[in-house]
């Protein structure tokens, strides 16, 4: 098989090899018409760049990193899909890493991404202290926070207003006539869990209710953890409403309640959070607080690649989306 060289692409497009190199590595520096002509030649000749060599010359690659805290959660699958769509459109590849909520593992993963010379990193941090991300910036690697707000004006972030989401969930339960609400979540060291709890408290106070809820904190935010939380609530005495901090917890909760003969929503109203597809397909379709998951990923990737390709003119943004209530069969 004949390997097409940059010189052959340049000759075919009627430009210099340096112009072809700029199209491949610094497209923003090339006029649109010239860039289109070179890209047409690349496609026609079947040119494939030598990724490792390009990385060494440029000091970075056409890749970005995505670090999430739970790759098993469909929420992050949808976020990753949005990221990959934008990256593919812009000629980038995505390296996915999973911290599993462990800051130590996250640090090791970030070092590996830096060793692969990624242009930038999208990250849902495993801990509130994000000072370690400054080390990436010191290496020239751009950073955008995903599903986590940034309080710094020099760093982009894309998040959802989880305090508002928690309030939406509990307000809906109260409107349906519920009195005693339980909150089931992962560790409250996870910002999303804490913010959703805060929102739930605010809704109870606004309604003139006691803000103290029955709380079950699980070590993980999985369906299995939701089943175990249901067993704990069944043993202690069920409330008449349960708010789970994500849909996986709620789906596990629903399974255990139905197996125990509890009628949902007649005996207990149940609402989740995220809006994953599985929530609609459950035996009793799950009411939930829907997040714009793919839009989160797309927006974060667009911010990151704009900063990578246009560092001089890029404006840092802290974007906050608003969640939406989706009412289905599991609530009154």
Please describe the topology of this protein:
Blueprint: H1 6-13, H2 17-25, H3 32-45, H4 51-58, E1 63-68, H5 74-89, E2 93-98, H6 103-115, E3 120-123, H7 134-138, E4 142-146, E5 156-160, H8 162-175, E6 181-185, H9 191-206, E7 214-217, H10 223-236, E8 241-244, H11 247-259, E9 269-274, H12 277-281, E10 287-290, H13 293-309, E11 318-321, E12 324-326
Parallel strand pairs: 1-2, 1-3, 3-4, 4-5, 5-11, 6-7, 6-8, 8-9, 9-10
Antiparallel strand pairs: 10-12
**Through-space gap between termini:** 66 Å
Q: Under the CATH scheme, which class of the largest domain? A: Alpha Beta
In the CATH hierarchy, the third-tier topology of the largest domain is known as: Rossmann fold
Spatially, the strands of the biggest sheet line up as: 2-1-3-4-5-11
Helix-strand makeup class? alpha/beta
Share of residues in helices: 40-55%
How would you describe the shape?
elongated
Calculate Rg over CA atoms.
24 Å
Q: What is the strand tally?
A: 12
Main sheet makeup: 6 strands, parallel
Which assembly state applies to the chains in this document? single chain
CATH superfamily of the largest domain: Response regulator
Count of DSSP helices? 13
Total domain modules: 3
Q: Beta-strand percentage? A: 15-25%
The appropriate CATH architecture of the largest domain is 3-Layer(aba) Sandwich
Low-confidence blocks of residues: none
Mean pLDDT: 92
Order of helices and strands: HHHHEHEHEHEEHEHEHEHEHEHEE
